[in-house]
Design a protein that fits this description.
The protein has 192 residues and is an alpha+beta fold. The protein is 24% helix and 38% strand.
Amino acid sequence: MKIILFSLIGFVSLFLGTSFQQGFSELENTYVSEKCGVSIQYPNDWTVTESDYVYEDFSKRIAEFQSEDDDIVSLYLAIYNYEISDNSIENIAEQEKYNMDYPEISIIQSGITTINELPTFKMTYVEGLPDKYEYEKDKLRKMEYAIPAYDRQYIFEYEASNKKEFDKYSSIVEEMADSIKITKPNFEGVNC
């Protein structure tokens, strides 16, 4: 009886695992920015564009990622030089939630996790007009990872124009986030 039960569990998880990944390539490519000390894996049929955009020595967008279908609103990796006296993950989580305290923003989920042994704050939220003015499925959706490392914050953010598009790519974005590796940078500020 136990053998049949374990076989059934194995078959169901194998079946669900393969159907879950259907339609996506595996994360075959790796983007590496040696200057910024970060790497991330992404699907083979996606493109990555390096960015030189620096905002007032406060933040730098490192790279932008796009699906083959080119229908992702925004998916990028950035580095921030926050002057936070307490750069703990708990303080960052509290600050990020405080920044989202607006009537048109609804936090779907938030919490502290780890990515490659680095504490990480992950938050998913919906942004749009209050419910009576806009359908929930049509609201802008975002998933953000904030990773404090070496006196900086690395941000990985995904934005989709509606629930359908968000759901289409959210699992692959989570896999990409889990692949992020950060090494100690050898530069000042964010202008790597």
